[in-house]
Design brief:
Elements lengths: L2 H21 L5 H20 L2 H20 L1
């Protein structure tokens, strides 16, 4: 199994935990999990040289960061 495959599954599990924490209204823990998942997915995009994955996760990071700082 490639490094990127391992990282993408870890990122997926972490983001699913973030969604679960959101459903349980456990902020800011959910945001922290999302930040970790976003960072890992960005790393996968870098490893795959897939700019679309990197761009969407930079956008997600900026959106979450602005929301978190304004809350």
């Amino acid at each position: 199994m490639e490094t990127a495959d391992i990282v993408k599954w870890i990122a997926t599990v972490i983001q699913l935990i973030g969604y679960g924490l959101t459903g349980l209204n456990l902020a800011p823990y959910n945001i922290f999990f999302f930040f970790i998942g976003i960072g890992l997915w960005f790393a996968v995009g870098y490893l795959w040289k897939d700019r679309a994955i990197m761009v969407v996760h930079v956008g997600a990071f900026i959106s979450l960061l602005i929301g978190y700082l304004s809350a």
